[in-house]
Amino acid sequence: MKTLDLLHRWFGGLIGLVLAVLGFSGALLVHKDAWVLLPHASDTQVQETNAIAAAVERIMADPATRPEMITFAGQDFGLNRLRFADGRGAYTDQAGNLVARWNSQWERPELWLFDLHHHLFAGDTGESVIGIAAIAGLFFIISGIILWIRTRKTFEFRLLPKRMSRPAILRHHRDLGVVAAPLLILALLTGAILVFRPMAALILGPAAPGQIDASLKAPSVPHVPLAAKYNGRALIEEARAHFPSAEVRSLSLPRQGSGLVTLRMKRPDEWLPNGRTTLWFAADDGRMIKARDASRLPQVVKIYNMLYPLHAAKVGGLSYRLVMTFAGLALGLLGTLTLWSFWFARKRVKRPVRQLIKVHR
């Protein structure tokens, strides 16, 4: 038990800052759509085929200003988001009229906060660090529950410690941790699986990573250039003919040598915000290459597609968002106060000074 306690304290002291950043940023991102204060952000979602097709035509009309991706307005956010290849971006209303633009993510707090939570501003390296931190966080929770059992008779739930002394912080830490443990396990486990394929194999089965990659892979076609006047209306209309009840969620132009235009849709039974029902169209003449129905994906892939909505509170409405907000704030507090108690709140032990007594003979 002493070894477990030592590992819990030292690992927590070393990685607590990363967990605190993930917790606080995640709590804010859960409500991201509510604090983007722009005109038309609260507009009701429009999914009428002609309206979406007209907006696509307007946005994609000029090849010189054409974005590489459009994410269409959702049920909780009334603006289309445009992404350009050079890092620029913009919001438009659902008719395609410009509302706001930016030249880098630093001009939009919701964008750099998302990058902080998902990559720590460090790309793939930061994502790997986050995955390691999530796995370490799972160790903290399990070991913390085991260590809490010894002191369970003194349990007292508080949102904040009584005082900023080390004993009070440690008591608050273990009691808050055991209350938030189920939610923290959910948040950290789903995050770790989304980052690391080996975690998917461990939780969903050895064959899961291969099934996920194969099921979500785009079809392989020769590279063809994008037509100067691409018929976006025909693309939207054909997609709706295949999946009449599905929401149109995003449109992506070819990237990295691909010859495909990708349209993602969300069927009513899907949890993923942008869905996994996908259609691919040839970039030159617009013919449909392949359509993938998310309802026919293997069961393990369907479960994998549920992880992000659970992690980011994209299902369950306001009540679940509030629950995951508590989880994020709890993780932030646990990480922050762990750092404080481990590195700064320790009392220095005063060692007695030996006095040399000279014996005169």
From TrEMBL:
Q: Which Pfam families match?
A: PepSY_TM
Question: Does Transmembrane count among this protein's keywords?
Answer: yes
Q: From the record, give the transmembrane residue ranges.
A: 12-30, 129-149, 176-196, 322-345
Does this entry carry the keyword GTP-binding? no
Its keywords, alphabetically, are: Membrane, Transmembrane, Transmembrane helix
Domain of life where this protein originates? Bacteria
Q: Provide the protein name.
A: PepSY domain-containing protein
Source organism: Sphingobium agri
